Amino acid sequence: MATKKSTVKKAKAKRPVILVTNDDGITAPGIRNLVETMKQFGDVIVVAPDSPQSAMGHAITINRPLRLDKVEVFEQVDSWQCSGTPVDCVKLAVNQILHRKPDLCVSGINHGSNSSINVIYSGTMSAAMEGAIEGIPSIGFSLLNYSMQADFAPSRKMIETIVRNVLHIGLPEGTLLNVNIPDLPLSKIKGIRICRQANAKWKEEFDHRKDPNGRDYFWLTGKFINFDSGIDTDEWALSKGYVSVVPVQFDFTAHHAIPHLNTVKWHD
Amino acid sequence: MATKKSTVKKAKAKRPVILVTNDDGITAPGIRNLVETMKQFGDVIVVAPDSPQSAMGHAITINRPLRLDKVEVFEQVDSWQCSGTPVDCVKLAVNQILHRKPDLCVSGINHGSNSSINVIYSGTMSAAMEGAIEGIPSIGFSLLNYSMQADFAPSRKMIETIVRNVLHIGLPEGTLLNVNIPDLPLSKIKGIRICRQANAKWKEEFDHRKDPNGRDYFWLTGKFINFDSGIDTDEWALSKGYVSVVPVQFDFTAHHAIPHLNTVKWHD
To answer: Which domain holds residue B78?
Structure first.
């Protein structure tokens, strides 16, 4: 596993170093489109899972060792596949490949929405969150189309605009961006909206089956329910044909709840 | 798999129904101590992973089916083990076993800290967060001792106090509690503090090895770094011998960043 440190370091002086990862795996069309889009902005390196890791949330791999193998997947882009989760990929990229923080970390393009509550379950967004925890400006991109045959051309145009802006203005400390893109032709996309995460959830439904030995098993499915009628939410923006951009933080403290909790005597 | 719906429903009229889960697996001493502590507050049911699921974050299982088996692990407590993640356990409990929301969801007692940034990686906390997303008052408990031989007696006293208070005052909508307990004898625990999540991170370090075939592999390790000198943080409270209670939310929006992001023109 040669890390080609020299290549990356030389590039650094001239152009931003951009780490690309995802959760659908290194061979997914979404990451290929993201890699191609990012080439114009800097020197791209890819560290991505060797298999699909959707819905892995912020999982990390601590009970088994990780493999990291250099692969030839993208033209003129140093690429590694990793046996771990999207978060593991970011950690390995920073610590074992780049030996420094990249200038930007982008994750995706996810095949399917990561809007509203999906941010919590999403491996795509967890990779971007890990980038932000590392202090790297980080963005997760998702297209509202689960198909492997999705048309990523409109997404690429929108991503160009967003990345150009982020490289220009930076991101407030401790924040990353959750970008969702409607599955529309470019001419139908109305623009880009800064939004808040809609108050929504999955109402789980399990498909209960019996295996050939008569034992029960369950497939997790669910129904998405949006409780939020706000016109400042990502769900609203997407439903109206806008790209939604939600700034996300990894301070999970419900600061507003602290005074309420302090109204009681907590110790006997 | 009989769900014993009748037992649970009958109980409901008289006493709270309390769902207990964890991420260390159904046989861990921590969950046994939590189950025993909760019995005084209501009718306890357990749905927990059949194997350790630490650091699984908010992962859910969508690419393979789930097993859910009734087991005899705890005296007079209906218990199920699940092949999935802690979040899967909560979903299955609500949807396939209880067929309604329990009155309280508690997760733990985790073997090891889930303070500050650990909330993001923790399966214990993700189970509690899933409970909160379902609209259930939810609490994750962790003891600052990774050993399976840890003394949980002081934790049990502190948990009693906290649960009694939460059943009394409830929790603000959209919030759950992240409770961490210092590894001290009861006489040395100074009290309970409502805190915010400290600004801290893991600086990853990988233990790079070669397998017998000469191929590289990596064990994820790391060093915890606290950047936060605030005396209102969980790290501060724990370092001073207090139990830390952080209200946590699943709206990840960095609301404060929205005005900054709105200063630029986002569309070409």
So the answer is: 5-198+231-250
For residue A171, which residues of chain B lie inside 8 Å, CB to CB?
257
CB contact residues (below 8 A), chain B span 42-61, against chain A: 52, 54-61
Across all residues in chain B, what is the average pLDDT?
A: 92
Contact A175 B254 (CB under 8 A): yes
Alpha-carbon distance B202 to nearest alpha carbon in chain A (angstroms): 9
- Burial bucket for residue B226 (CB in 10 Å: 0-12, 13-18, 19+): middle
Contact: B206, A161; criterion CB under 8 Å: no
* B contact test, residue of A47, A82, A251 with most B CBs within 10 A: A251
A184 and chain B in contact, CB less than 8 A: no
The reply to whether B187 touches chain A by the CB within 8 Å rule is no
* pLDDT score of A12: 42
A63 located within any domain: yes
CATH number at residue A171: 3.40.1210.10
B71 interfaces chain A, CB cutoff of 8 Å: no
Which chain A residue has its CA at the smallest distance from B121's CA?
Answer: A58
In this structure, is residue A206 part of a structural domain?
no
Per the document, the length of chain A is 268
Q: What backbone phi and psi angles, to 5 degrees, belong to B231?
A: -95, 10
B172 vs A197, A247, A254: nearest CB: A254
Return the percentage of chain A with pLDDT > 70, whole number: 94
Is B249 close to A253, i.e. CB distance below 8 A?
A: yes
Shortest CA gap A87–chain B (Å): 10
pLDDT grade, residue B59 (50/70/90)? Answer: confident
Nearest to A188 by CA among A154, A159, A156, A162: A154
What's residue A83's pLDDT?
95
Number of domains in chain A: 1
> Measured between alpha carbons, how far is residue A20 from residues A28, A92, A94, A104, A121 in Å?
13, 12, 12, 9, 20
- Arithmetic mean of pLDDT, A135-159: 96
- pLDDT at residue B6 greater than cutoff 70: no
Residue B101 token pair? 């929301």
Min Cα–Cα distance to chain B from A52, Å: 9
Q: Is residue A48 part of a domain?
A: yes
Interval B226-260: pLDDT, tens:
999 999 999 999 999 999 999 999 999 999 999 99
